[in-house]
Amino acid sequence: MTEKNIYIKTWGCQMNEYDSSMITQLLEKKHNFKRIYIPEIADVLILNTCSIREKAQEKVFHQLGRWKKLKKNNPNVIIAVGGCVATQEGEEIRKRANYVDIIFGTQTLHRLPNMIKMVKQNKKHVIDIDFPLIEKFDFIEYQNFPGITAYVTIIEGCNKFCSFCIVPYTRGYEVSRPVDDILLEISMLSKRGVREVNLLGQNVNAYRGKTFDGKICKFSELLKLVALIDGIDRIRFTTSNPIEFTDDIIEAYLDTKKIVSFLHLPVQSGSNRILKLMKRAHSVQEYKKIIEKITKNRPNIQISSDFIVGFPGETQKDFEKTLNFIKEINFDMSFSFIYSSRPGTPAAELPDNLPLEEKKNRLYELQKLINKNAKLWNEKMLGSIQSILVEGPSRKNPMELYGRTENNRIVNFEGQPNMIGQFINVKITKINSNSLKGYYSKKFSNKNL
Ligand code: SAH
Ligand code: F3S
Prior knowledge:
- By secondary structure, this protein is α/β, with parallel strands linked by helices.
- Among the domains are: 4-128, Methylthiotransferase, N-terminal domain (Rossmann fold), CATH 3.40.50; 382-444, CATH 2.40.50.140.
- The chain contains 13 helices and 22 strands.
- The protein has helices at residues 14-31, 56-73, 83-89, 91-96, 112-122, 167-171, 179-191, 219-227, 247-255, 272-277, 284-297, 316-329, 356-381, and strands at 4-10, 33-35, 44-49, 78-82, 102-104, 126-128, 149-153, 155-156, 175-176, 196-200, 208-210, 216-218, 234-238, 262-264, 302-304, 306-309, 335-338, 385-393, 401-404, 410-413, 423-431, 436-440.
- A six-stranded parallel β-sheet has the order 2-1-3-4-5-6, with helices on both faces. It has a five-stranded mixed barrel with strand order 18-19-20-22-21. The protein has a three-stranded parallel β-sheet with strand order 7-10-13, with helices on both faces.
- It starts with a strand and ends in a 9-residue tail after the last strand.
- The protein binds S-adenosyl-L-homocysteine and FE3-S4 cluster.
- Residues 52-53, 164-165, 167, 202-203, 239, 241, 266, 268, 306, 308, 337, 339-340, 342 line the site of S-adenosyl-L-homocysteine (SAH).
- Its cofactor is [4Fe-4S] cluster.
- Keywords: 4Fe-4S, Cytoplasm, Iron, Iron-sulfur, Metal-binding, S-adenosyl-L-methionine, Transferase, tRNA processing.
- Residues 144-376 form the Radical SAM core domain.
- Its EC number is 2.8.4.3.
- This is tRNA-2-methylthio-N(6)-dimethylallyladenosine synthase.
């Protein structure tokens, strides 16, 4: 069989990136496809979409419009749309763009090879946006070309139904991957040089995976098992929801040193009134309690968060509560967004009278505060010795290497190629706007490099 070219365009979150790498692996390993990066010479064009915030639908049709021209030049080109917008819109996509051949969902991407075959044979479009229970993971063997760090999905979907969020509708209910599958995948990654894993899911702390003997393994237990894998020396996870950040997870910070001292725990707002409208099911005080407990176990931990500004009905007072909460917790680098109404979610029905200009102002003010905090955290690091995982040549200066600290700062420094893939100690000597400068010396480390 001759080789066919696939071109994949991915939008959105890390889960989508992970899904695109699964698609690549599946098509390349078993179906004689090759991923290329020039759409003009592709046989199959795949759009892996995200609908969490922007005007996702419009963006999809914009992109499809461009690909329509490619199909006009070569009618044999197959166009496939997957991801969250496809799951949500299904048949509707073909109503507006009847040249689309395949519509696949977030949970049916493993059926893509078969769908491509069907389109070729029957010259007819295929739609499959089902939610089969996590079947897609049975098709992964290992990730293509992992680097020094890798993402590993441990749980899909979300049952929380926060009033603003589209995820439960597009990714389905929470389904955990079996423990052994995850451990096997991470062991294989470790054998291929990965030293840091980032466990991925919309709510990793809701993880309840089956063990081989039918028992249930909780997230805290999974963390400990991952920490036992040789070669994996740093563990991160994204994202957690405060309502399931239970004491056993907080306990894990005491004896599982491989878990980084950096926690991303989205709070969204510092106002209880808004949290209630968001259906977040926890209060500001409960969130604070978690941080207090975790800081007891890990005094140097840094916390980052997600914030939404301009949620329907957010008053200046609510907003100020968020600003005060940021100061109180001393949040580090965080993500913040202007509320974006998602069709079909309960919040989309709430009256939203705040002008966009005001929402932009609030976002600006919030980001200014967060940036100030992040800068203060950076300044604290100046002169300190930090353990960094060296990932490769620096992007700005190929004569230098770069690595990441536990708290996710990029550090550029002068080093030797044999340091790539190793943890080394460097002294932080300078703070730049997006990175830090470090100095390596043998005396900071007990390793012979
Ligand atoms: N599971 C995570 C959130 C995943 S979605 C949690 O429990 O918090 C990632 C982030 O996107 C959210 O934390 C939220 O800040 C943002 N987001 C989601 N829907 C949004 C919307 N409709 N408008 C603006 N931001 C949104
Ligand atoms: Fe979305 Fe809330 Fe789940 S933000 S992903 S519904 S925890």
